[in-house]
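Lab notebook, bench 4. Still working through the backlog of constructs that have no structural model yet. Next entry is a single chain of 170 residues. Request: give me the structure tokens for it.
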Amino acid sequence: MSIRPLIILPDPLLRQTSAPIERFDDDLQKLADDMLETMYDAPGIGLAGIQIGVPRRILVIDVSKEGEDKQPLVIINPEILTSSDERSVYEEGCLSIPDYYAEVERPAKVTVKSLDRHGKEQLLEADGLLATCLQHEIDHLNGVLFIDYISRLKREMVIKKFTKAAKQRL
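Model written out:
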């Protein structure tokens, strides 16, 4: 296992749509393990493949609280089947947009069909933080960022700040 570098805004890769995964081989297992290690190291509660430069439909999540046993989820080719009319608001952050947080309103409950790391179909019925995290990470697979849900003015300010920071790193 190894920690992979994170892709940071304004990298255009973050806006790319990820391709489905078709092969469940040793490379996929290593990718899943690397993603979990990268997410825990960051530290974060979710990570999509695109965030480490792999435009494939894979994400990892662990919303267990500090002090609890880890409960890692590896989710491949996820598809939201249903989402509730009821809404919830969480303050979201993103490993690809470090140190920026904003309140985002999303459906409070979702049902997600996906495959596990071995290709077995799984159905997740989620609410609370898990539902928010699933939607946030699935958005990544579609080139959508949580800042797309905030006002245009705030979003432009965030993009400008990160573009400036990226130019200073060069």
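Notes after review: The chain has a mean pLDDT of 96. Strands lie at 46-48, 58-61, 73-83, 87-94, 97-107, 109-115, 121-127. Flag for follow-up if needed.
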